[in-house]
Specification:
The chain is of the alpha+beta class. It is built from 13 helices and seven strands. The model has no long low-confidence stretch (mean pLDDT 91).
Length: 330
């Protein structure tokens, strides 16, 4: 610590290195984007470097760094606004929408690689496990909260800070923190399922889970609509940020699948991965018949009762970088 306070870069790197992953995950939960989390983490480390001499050790280094990261994220929230999902923009489409261009002016929620998660030493007040706290439904719900409520909920429910510690972090009162927590819990509870994906996945046999993922990817590769539909719940949804239109119900999803990815796109290859604490598939597309298959989408699967209840396809090769995936497959 003394060396780092004295300006030793290597000592500072050793000091904060073990905490980088959980700080990055905290920034993702706050901001809904792995790229925004990159920026916020760099801002956090710069602020910590500059302010380390003033760190008096009255709290743990971990708590102090999370405080610094929270303020960096709150500044980002104030300037960048919240991240959206297609469901936030309007109702589902009953039939395929072929004229569905990407909406680049909207800040979209992005996927998060499970490899970026670290074991977080949460306090006794923490309620959400680290994987539950990056599930798509939870992170999307957080985006509907003002920055101060988002921060209070994450600090209390995920990281285990006390209300008094949060009040000190955010320069407010314990009463204000408790009020923010109450409002945040109500909004989040309205937007997330009663059962988390972690609970659902624990109830599904591992072999069955692998089977669902493999059969879904195989159905896409074969262009087999019947096989795809057999894996879906009746109320399944399929969204594809940055495309605004999305689909609800097995008929609408089948109509879209038959008209677009199963017939009109080209050939697919895939890699089974994990994202946001959920099973996912990285899809690669070749639409010229002879070339390489290029990175296309990260599709996160939300399951219920052994079937797929939500498909969220994050389109764009840029998402593959954070997952350490190749840009193409031969």
């Amino acid at each position: 610590m003394d060396l780092a306070r004295g300006g030793d870069d290597a000592a500072f790197a050793r000091l904060v290195g073990p905490l980088r992953r959980e700080l990055h995950a905290h920034c993702y939960r706050m901001l809904g984007s792995a790229y925004d989390a990159d920026d916020a983490l760099q801002d956090t480390l710069l602020r910590a470097w500059r302010g380390l001499a003033r760190f008096e050790g009255r709290s743990s280094l971990r708590s102090w760094l999370h405080t610094v990261a929270t303020h960096a994220c709150l500044d980002a929230v104030a300037t960048r606004g919240r991240r959206a999902m297609p469901v936030d923009l309007g109702p589902a489409s009953d039939r395929v929408v072929l004229d569905n261009p990407p909406r680049g002016e909207i800040a979209w929620l992005g996927p998060y690689p499970d490899a970026g998660l670290a074991h977080e030493l949460a306090g006794p007040a923490a309620r959400y496990e680290q994987r539950e706290a990056v599930e798509l439904a939870f992170v999307a719900a957080l985006q509907h909260l003002p920055g101060n409520q988002r921060a209070a909920l994450l600090l209390f429910e995920v990281l285990g800070f006390s209300a008094a510690e949060i009040a000190a972090t955010m320069d407010t009162t314990v009463a204000s923190v408790n009020s923010a927590l109450q409002r945040a819990r109500r909004i989040v509870a309205e937007k997330i399922p009663a059962s988390t994906q972690q609970r659902t996945l624990r109830e599904i046999d591992d072999a069955r889970l692998r089977e669902v993922v493999a059969e879904y990817a195989a159905a896409m590769a074969r262009g087999d609509a019947d096989a795809l539909v057999a894996l879906l719940t009746e109320d399944v949804t399929w969204s594809m940020p940055p495309l605004a239109h999305w689909y609800r119900g097995v008929d609408a999803v089948r109509d879209f699948a038959e008209r677009v990815p199963l017939t009109a796109c080209g050939s697919w290859q895939h890699l089974a991965i994990s994202a946001n604490g959920q099973p996912a598939v990285a899809f690669y597309l070749c639409n010229d018949g002879d070339g390489a298959h290029l990175a296309w989408s990260i599709t996160v699967l939300t399951l219920r009762g052994g079937r797929i209840a939500e498909l969220t396809s994050f389109l764009g090769a840029e998402h593959f970088t954070h997952f350490g995936l190749p840009a193409s497959l031969a």
